[in-house]
């Protein structure tokens, strides 16, 4: 039995009865109204998901009834039924809020196909609203720009709260663009040092000969260009948090200096003789393979053990399920507002393309893609054409990919191939609906709107 509740409004009894018979045979629950007042009486007693509404009716015509329904039942889907030669009237109705129209005479196949399409779209919208509500709950936890409702992100949020309570060094690993600095800031803002400074430096962006001065500061005359004394990042971070991004880039000699500063909570400025004390918490991050760094000798083992008392790993975007869509909508809102361009959503083909892309550049790539799409988009929604630079081929797991990743991609692909029909996909996968639902939850898979 289909869950969609349908109201057919037509002054011709034969048309009403025929449509009801076709729809009920397919499994829909149908009520019949012979005119506008009759339809409004039905709607006042119970909610309907879909109204099939004839335009030409005596008394209150379809346009007037459409406006009444839109005003008092804005979530109800409305399809206009129009006779041959009245297409202009149907187009006008769509501008007034109708979702689609059927032109008489139509056959059962046309009707059922349209209703099934609208039912799928409604189911997608309901799934999205559920995901949005879940997202709002995490936004209320004040994780800043870190958002997501997938299982891996829920686990990460919990870990952030646990790590924030322990005032020890943290090493964050993850691919480029996953948001390592956002995680570091979230840890800082949830810690007892939240009122202190958050001082960040990208170690890979500073030449090695200048990094010592950047970190420890220097005294006047310490070297040729040192015309005045300078406070370093370690000193700036007193009573707060020091974030060293791309820590795998620093030299072994610098690691020794940092190790001593961490142990003693004190250091000397370059060219200085006075010991400087600074009580800071250290958070480091790298996109590199730490074990490879240790094996090659690029990272000292004593330094590694000192900075990774609490290790954390950020999952890549491709493993975050439908967080991709939630993030895409967030960035769409941001960029459409920034350039004053009223783009409200993505079309289903655009959602499909976003979900199937590999996102090797992670969230940073997604931000770039959405900003570019907003710039080129011409309609009220971003379509697949506005994302054509992404390509259309689905991402496939690389050889040796983790089982979890392969499983998630296979389930998502099967759902897409089955038009997101849960029962059909469960049959293809040879599991029951409940098992499929649990796997979807585990991988954060939610229907795109």
Give a written overview of the molecule.
The chain is of the alpha/beta class and 449 residues long. It has three domains: 5-131, Response regulator (Rossmann fold), CATH 3.40.50; 151-313, Rossmann fold; 318-442, Helicase, Ruva Protein, domain 3 (Orthogonal Bundle). Helix content is 48%, strand content 14%. The chain has helices at 13-26, 36-45, 62-72, 87-95, 108-139, 151-165, 180-189, 208-216, 233-236, 252-264, 290-296, 301-307, 323-338, 348-356, 362-376, 403-417, 422-429, 433-442, and strands at residues 5-9, 29-33, 50-54, 77-82, 100-103, 170-173, 198-202, 217-218, 230-231, 241-245, 266-268, 275-277, 281-286, 310-313, 345-346, 381-382. The protein has a five-stranded parallel beta sheet, sandwiched between helices. It has a five-stranded parallel beta sheet with strand order 7-10-13-6-14. Helix 2 (36-45) runs parallel beside helix 3, helix 13 (323-338) packs across helix 15 (362-376) and helix 16 packs across helix 17 (422-429). It is elongated, with a radius of gyration of 29 Å. It starts with a strand and ends in a 7-residue tail after the last helix. The model is unreliable at 392-398 (pLDDT under 50).
